[in-house]
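Lecture notes, part 5. Sequence design as translation. It can be helpful to think of inverse folding as translation between two languages: the language of shapes and the language of residues. The source text, in structure tokens, appears below.
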């Protein structure tokens, strides 16, 4: 199996094929995150925000420092569509996740 199949198997185990079946296209060209992972996060694992998908469910915010910024808005739109949010709610979610990412990038342990 290729790197994507190994990554999915590592995260989702025997459910990897089901995750991929929900959407095998990437959220954006800059990230490895698949649309199926967002759908799985919301529909099966109970994610309720783009931050939940990117941080807790997939780890994309932690593992893809450069690509994560590109994924926020597409993931927020996907979460919003699945949860039947208004456009303003989608925007609020995206803005909150972008603010969290920006704060993480400014982290100074000193």
């Amino acid at each position: 199996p290729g790197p994507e199949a190994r990554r999915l198997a590592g995260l989702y185990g025997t459910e990897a094929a089901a995750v991929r079946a929900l959407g095998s296209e990437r959220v954006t060209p800059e990230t490895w995150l698949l649309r199926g992972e967002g759908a799985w996060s919301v529909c099966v694992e109970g994610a309720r925000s783009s931050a939940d998908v990117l941080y807790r469910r997939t780890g994309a915010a932690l593992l893809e420092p450069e690509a994560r910024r590109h994924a926020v808005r597409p993931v927020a739109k996907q979460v919003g569509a699945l949860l039947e949010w208004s456009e303003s709610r989608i925007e609020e979610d995206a803005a909150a996740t972008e603010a969290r990412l920006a704060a993480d990038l400014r982290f100074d342990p000193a």
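The translated text above is only one of many valid answers, since several sequences can fold into similar shapes. The chain has a mean pLDDT of 92.
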